[in-house]
Automatic annotation (TrEMBL):
Protein name: Helix-turn-helix transcriptional regulator
Record-linked CDD domains: HTH_XRE
InterPro entries registered for this protein in UniProt: Cro/C1-type_HTH (IPR001387), Lambda_DNA-bd_dom_sf (IPR010982)
Molecular functions per Gene Ontology: DNA binding
HTH cro/C1-type domain mapped to chain residues: 36-84
Length: 89
């Protein structure tokens, strides 16, 4: 059931935000969340299946994650998408 919900929400998210830029709300807060959840940046990167370099670029606002990556990050951290990311155009 959760897998169906995940796919449906990802589909709807891609349709609603096709040309929007997604970025972290707060770099320092995100880093604190990683620490609180017991992750190093390297361990978190491995856990979500992304390179450490790519995650670092997202954290430093050099890359905008896709909706799928952003949702995966929020999901792994057990947070609401809107608590972690801002969406703008």
């Amino acid at each position: 059931m959760l897998r169906i919900y995940w796919r449906l929400s990802l589909f709807l998210f891609k349709e609603v935000y096709p040309l929007m830029k997604i970025k972290l709300k707060n770099k320092k807060r995100f880093q604190m969340i990683l620490i609180e959840k017991g992750y190093t940046q390297r361990a978190f990167s491995k856990n979500i299946g992304m390179s450490e370099n790519y995650v670092n670029q997202i954290i430093n606002y050099k890359k905008h994650p896709s909706p799928a990556v952003a949702m995966k990050i929020a999901s792994v951290l057990e947070l609401d998408f809107n608590d972690v990311f801002d969406v703008s155009n």
